[in-house]
Amino acid sequence: MSRGAGGADMVPEPVAGHRWIRTLELEDLQDTAALARVLAQSLRAGDLLILTGGLGAGKTTFTQALADGLRVEGQISSPTFVLSRVHHGEVVDLVHVDAYRTDAAGFEDLDIAATVEESVTVVEWGRRLAEHALVGEEGSWVDLELIAPEAAAEGGESAEPQIITDFSETDQDLLGGARRAVLRGYGPRWSTPPV
Fold first, then answer.
1. Which CATH number characterizes residue 125's domain?
2. Structural domain for 139, as ranges
3. Which of 9, 24, 160, 164 is most buried, by CB atoms within 10 Å?
4. How many whole angstroms from its chain centre is CA 162?
5. Domain count of the fold of the chain
6. Angle at the Cα of 71 from the Cα atoms of 143 and 85, rounded to 5 degrees
7. Any signal peptide, and if so, which residues (predicted)?
8. Which residues of the chain have pLDDT under 50?
9. CA angle, 6 as apex, 122 and 176 as ends, to 5°?
10. 52: nearest Cα among 130, 153, 140
11. Which residue pairs, CB below 8 angstroms and at least 24 apart, start in 28-34?
């Protein structure tokens, strides 16, 4: 079953058995990027990060900053159409995977397991799909869910339709809104929170 288009309602529930949970309030995308750079300091080859959140929650921004923190070469963009990219780094490679449009069989076909031990692997939309395939039930991983405020909170369906004539971006557009980051640690490697 593929993830299909949708928002937060399409986000699978977390896997049971986490060792800890930590919730952080992030003001904007700069805070999201700062969290990624801090987390990068704790990551090493063999680490798996499952990155979850609705469309537009900041997953690609997070991964770009994580790559910067890992000193990975090249531009990081959403791998939506490629599904998987390897980015070479000074110390460790970053494997960036988007599992949004795949199922368990399709994920297995990507052969990510071949690189997981020598890379930091980030799987967007990988919750309940990538953990078992890459590290097994007894393995270790960090689950990070980014939760952006719902559009309904900004006016939603009851707001009157508007004609937009100014498409320039404001500072708020560039920084994005507040969001919540929920981190969960699984397995012996992540017995304590990294941040």
1. 3.40.50.300
2. 27-150+172-187
3. 24
4. 33
5. 1
6. 60
7. none
8. 1-8, 151-159, 168-174
9. 65
10. 130
11. 28/175, 28/176, 28/177, 28/178, 29/58, 29/61, 29/174, 29/175, 29/176, 30/175, 32/58, 32/61, 32/62, 32/65, 32/146, 32/176, 32/179, 32/181, 33/61, 33/62, 33/64, 33/65, 33/68, 34/65
Report if residue 137 sits inside a domain.
yes
Q: Please give the Cα distance from 139 to 132 (Å, whole number).
A: 8
Contact in structure between 110 and 133 (CB atoms under 8 Å): no
Name the residue among 99, 106, 101 with its Cα closest to residue 84: 99
Whether residue 157 is contained in a domain is answered as no
User: Which DSSP symbol is given to 72?
Assistant: B
pLDDT tens figures, 41-84: 999 999 999 999 988 889 989 999 999 999 998 888 765 555 77
Domain-embedded: residue 11: no
Does the pTM surpass 0.85? The reply is no
